[in-house]
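Budget justification note: compute hours in this period were largely spent on complex prediction jobs such as the one shown. Inputs:
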Amino acid sequence: QVQLVESGGGVVQPGRSLRLSCAASGFSFSSYGMHWVRQAPGKGLEWVAVISYDGSNKHYADFVKGRFTISRDISKKTLYLQMHTLRPEDTAVYYCAKANYYNAFDIWGLGTMVTVSS
Amino acid sequence: DIQMTQSPSTLSASVGDRVTITCRASQSISGWLAWYQQKPGKAPKLLIYDASSLQSGVPSGFSGSGSGTEFTLTISSLQPDDFATYYCQQYNSYPYTFGQGTKLEIK
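Corresponding output:
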């Protein structure tokens, strides 16, 4: 079935790095844009980044520009989010999401929790 | 950045009620708007895309309307499973932005 499964979350100290992964299955991974969205504890949804279907275009939220990098490996059907210089305010559940042909997010992963704390 | 503002933030209603949630954009987003439902501890679920198109598998009691800067999500007859938090999202331009959410509670 169509599925996204995130991994790589955990507890990390401020200033350190972490890489999240999102394994896709059940659909043509190379045909769709992919996004990362986060949700701080008790807060709303916050868009983080997008990568185009072929990896040629990327956009980021201002609060992660220069610190986070989105990438994808078509052969492994996996989306990544490399996070550097993490801050306590980056603490959140991070979801990967697939864009449909209209750019709404029709498939979401279960999320992976990132906690930035000393 | 385009700001999305939902109202109300909290809505108390009963099973069988008809409810409407409003979402306003700080500038025109044409019809590039989606609505999501989220339950505690779960990932969001797409309900409506392109302002009024019902996502496959979503009950027909959900409907969306609007264009430009004002949009609505309507649930025609609340079911017990509908009590959740609802978010609007614009995908007209980057950075994509979400509304702050509307929590639909049981009265």
